[in-house]
Amino acid sequence: MRNLMVAGNWKMNGDSVMASTLIDDIVVGFKGYDSCELLICPPFPLLSLVANKIKGTSLLLGAQNLSEHKSGAYTGEISASMLEDMGCQYVIVGHSERRAIMRETNEMVAEKFHAAVNNGLIPILCVGETLEQKNQEQTTQIIEEQLKSVMGTNADSMTNAIIAYEPVWAIGTGLTATPEEAQHIHHFIRNTISSISQEIADKIQILYGGSVNGDNAKGLFSMPDIDGGLIGGASLTARDFLSIAKATNK
């Protein structure tokens, strides 16, 4: 039985006042509710503040990105070991915005993924297709390429990892894949991993990301291969974020 997770990606939003208030509200609202794991991924400057605020709670901490390098002359970058030292347990890798805006290639994403694994962090590997790729019926091809660039012919690196399926056309647009559409792709992802390791495929959490809200979360999370969500805008409001978390009660 896979645990369900709801992960909040704050992106480039917030300040210390907002973060403090939001975490307090989430902690109070989530108290006594344990149907899922709750993960917070704030911007780098807020990691320490959030880490201190969630001490003694069940909330988990993650970062939004990392460098593929261990250390050195890489101004503005942050390494896996630095994130671990700040209390992070997870890190998002290959988010569609970084692939599109920062031009991260599959090869770069793979290097970051392995940097996280090698330093004891759990990477959340984001995969997904653009609207153009979807319209050209390239969804499964694109996702298979993104997956295999990371795991190659050996799925061992996926033992302590999470996958997030993000249809790029649904992020921040208000558009959402139907539960059946999302389930189809999640099942494809699990099958792709099972072709290398059935054991890992059965255990790995696969999250859905793409305009998830309190209204559509229940239907999405009821699907057998959807193990929670990677939440963007709705994670910036405690009420909205908690309504999604509570939808994991299958």
What report would you give on this structure?
α1 runs parallel beside α11 (238-246). The protein is globular. The chain has helices at 16-30, 47-53, 80-85, 96-101, 106-118, 131-135, 139-151, 179-194, 198-203, 217-221, 238-246; strands at 5-9, 37-41, 60-63, 90-93, 122-127, 162-165, 205-208, 228-231. The longest helix has 16 residues, at 179-194. By secondary structure, the protein is of the alpha/beta class. It has a domain at 5-9 and 93-154 and 166-246: Aldolase class I (TIM Barrel, Alpha-Beta Barrel). The chain has eleven helices and eight strands. It has an eight-stranded parallel β-sheet with strand order 7-6-5-4-3-2-1-8.
Strand tally:
8
Report the biggest beta sheet as strand number plus sense, adding barrel if it closes.
Answer: 8 strands, parallel
Assign the CATH superfamily of the domain at 5-9 and 93-154 and 166-246: Aldolase class I
Here the CATH topology of the domain at 5-9 and 93-154 and 166-246 equals: TIM Barrel
What's the order of the H and E elements? EHEHEHEHHEHHEHHEHEH
Q: What's the arrangement of strands in the largest beta sheet?
A: 7-6-5-4-3-2-1-8
Overall body shape: globular
* CATH C-level label of the domain at 5-9 and 93-154 and 166-246: Alpha Beta
Mean pLDDT: 95
Helix content: 40-55%
- CATH structural architecture of the domain at 5-9 and 93-154 and 166-246: Alpha-Beta Barrel
As residue ranges, the low-confidence spans are: none
Question: What is the end-to-end distance?
Answer: 12 Å
Fraction of residues in β-strands: 5-15%
By secondary-structure content and strand pairing, the structural class works out as: alpha/beta
Rg over C-alpha atoms, rounded to the nearest angstrom: 17 Å
How many DSSP helices?
11
